[in-house]
Every structure is written in structure tokens, then in C-alpha cells.
Design goal:
mainly alpha, Alpha-lytic protease prodomain-like, Alpha-Beta Plaits, elongated
């Protein structure tokens, strides 16, 4: 129920973003044709990117909600990373086009007109995008959607871009120096170029299953709250994100003399506890390893007829210890 509710919230937010993006595109394009301003053109080009990226975001929200199937056993959540990367790539392309147009404006000049009306339209667009960006990021954090967060950050960038354009046109209006127009456009391009790079970097990290330190630390905290003497050692901990779903697996060393039924029930209880600690946005797989004599100094099981060495101390479990090899096999 919670997942279905999140899907509707994400779909609603993506639809609102696309609708507002189309409206902003019309406003900014109109402002450009009225003023012939390079700075406003840069703003309009970014709105084209926003509309294309938001359409992709809406598609990814719908696709990522599909359950795992035979073709995609880990689900469809990776589309969110692809969506963020596409948006970042489009932003980079838009920034390069803006720089090209600005340089051409500096070399050949542009005759500006109806700046007052262009200023008004651009200011309205910037305020609307400021609200939209805040809304998308808030909704994205609530539903743990990378797509909405990326879209919200892009819209906020668009908003600051529009504010920059307004400042540039005000300077032109007050001083009569039209060179401010392409210079502001170049400043806008550099700003959104960095934003595009950030999204592409985030996307590549997700698609390449880059280690998620925050989630790893959260998993380690949950494990430490559950830890009992029968948890002799945890190692080879891994977390792979697929959209908002985390796939967690690790090796757990347990007493070698437990029967299969006892060990299986123990593993299922652990999996359920971890999934609950991650708010059910996780699939957990525990690999069980039998203990060996070298485990005895770190094993706190009191009643053990197979102990070959005295218990010394339970090892400290942090991210570095749990992602590596077990200390008794180093």
C-alpha cells in the first residue's frame, strides 16, 4: 500500500512538472521573440531541456514502479539513474549551445527590443520554477525518488538562471550597455554546465553500482542493534541500489553444528529485521557460513561443546570491517 501510494505521488509530481515546464517554455520563447535577447534565449533553451527531461522522468517513474519480472529480476529501478543521466546530458548540450549563441552575440551583436515585457515574463517564470523545484525535491525525498530530486534540482537551477537573466536585462535597461546580455548568458551556461555534470556523475555512479556509503552505514547500524553471540562474524557486505529499492547481501558466520532448519529460520528472521529497518524498501539475502576453529576467540556463544580456544572479545563492526574479508581468513 505504501509503495502504491508513493507511485501515485511520484506520478502526480512528474505530471505537474511536465505541465508547468510546457507553460514556462511558451512564456520564455515568447519573451525571446519579443526581445531578441541572448540571455533569454539561453533561458528558453534550458526550458526545452526541462520539458524533454521531465517527459523522460515521467516515463521512468511509471517504468520503475513495475515489479521484477523474468527479464528484469532486480526490478526496473535503474531507469531512474538513466533518466537522471539523460537530463544531465541534455543540460550539458544546452549549455554549449548557449555559449555558442552568446559568443556569436558578442561578435556580431543583437538589437534588443521590448525589454520591459521580456523582463516581466522572465521574472514570473523564475518565481514559478522556484516553487516547482522546491515542490519536486520535497516530494522526491518523501518518496525516495532520485528522478524527482534530480528534476527538482534542475528546475531550481532553471529558476536561478532566470533570475540571472533578469539581473542582466536590468543592467542593460539601466546602462544601455547591450554587452551585458551575452555575458550573462555565458554565466548562465557555466552554471548549468556544472549542474549537468553533477547529474551525469550521479547517474554513472548508480548505473555502475557505486558504493552507497550512507546506506551501508545505515545497514551496519541495523545489524549492530540485532547482533547476538550467534552472529559470530559478518563479512562481504554489499548494497546495490535499483531506484529507491536497495538490494543487500552479506555473509554471516554461525555455529557449524546448527541443523538446516535452525539456520534457515535464523536467516529469515535477520532478513525480515533488516528489511524492516530499511522501511521495506530493500531485499535482503543472507549467506550463511559455518564457523571454524579460528573463530573461537571472537565467538561469544556460552554453551559450546566444540570450542578449541577461549573467547577473547567480540570484534568491532563498522563499514570497513563488514565489507571486507573475515579476520580469521586474512
Amino acid at each position: 500500500m505504501h509503495s502504491q501510494s508513493d507511485f501515485h505521488l511520484k506520478k502526480q509530481a512528474a505530471t505537474i512538472s511536465l505541465s508547468v515546464g510546457l507553460l514556462m517554455l511558451v512564456m520564455k520563447t515568447s519573451a525571446y521573440f519579443l526581445t531578441h535577447s541572448t540571455a533569454i534565449l539561453s533561458d528558453a533553451l534550458e526550458s526545452i531541456v526541462h520539458v524533454a527531461a521531465t517527459a523522460m522522468a515521467l516515463y521512468s517513474v511509471v517504468l520503475s514502479a513495475r515489479p521484477a519480472d523474468e527479464s528484469h529480476p532486480y526490478g526496473h529501478g535503474k531507469i531512474e539513474f538513466f533518466s537522471a543521466g539523460t537530463e544531465g546530458g541534455l543540460i550539458v548540450v544546452a549549455a554549449l549551445v548557449i555559449i555558442f549563441e552568446a559568443v556569436r552575440g558578442i561578435l556580431f551583436g543583437r538589437e534588443l527590443a521590448q525589454l520591459d515585457l521580456g523582463l516581466m515574463l522572465t521574472l514570473i517564470a523564475s518565481l514559478v520554477n522556484l516553487w516547482l523545484g522546491w515542490f519536486l525535491i520535497k516530494r522526491g525525498r518523501r518518496t525516495k525518488s532520485l528522478t524527482l530530486i534530480a528534476d527538482g534540482k534542475h528546475v531550481l537551477t532553471d529558476s536561478w538562471t532566470s533570475f540571472g537573466v533578469v539581473v542582466g536585462l536590468v543592467l542593460v535597461r539601466l546602462t544601455g550597455i547591450e554587452l551585458f546580455d551575452p555575458l550573462v548568458a555565458i554565466g548562465v551556461a557555466v552554471n548549468i554546465l556544472f549542474s549537468g555534470y553533477t547529474l551525469v556523475r550521479l547517474s554513472v555512479g548508480g548505473l555502475m553500482d557505486e558504493s552507497d556509503r550512507t546506506t551501508l552505514e545505515h545497514v551496519v547500524d541495523i545489524i549492530n542493534t540485532r547482533r547476538t553471540p550467534e552472529w559470530i562474524n559478518v563479512h562481504h557486505l554489499r548494497v546495490m541500489r535499483s531506484g529507491q529499492l536497495a538490494h543487500v547481501d552479506f555473509h554471516l558466520t554461525i555455529p557449524f553444528y546448527w541443523n538446516v532448519k535452525q539456520a534457515d529460520a535464523f536467516a529469515h528472521a535477520i532478513d525480515a529485521h533488516l528489511a524492516g529497518g530499511l522501511e521495506s524498501q530493500a531485499k535482503v539475502l543472507t549467506h550463511l557460513d559455518p564457523c571454524v576453529p579460528a573463530c573461537c576467540p571472537m565467538c561469544g556463544v556460552a554453551q559450546c561443546d566444540h570450542r578449541t580456544m577461549e573467547f577473547a572479545a567480540a570484534p568491532r563492526w563498522d563499514v570497513q570491517a563488514l565489507v571486507g574479508k573475515p579476520p580469521y581468513r586474512q
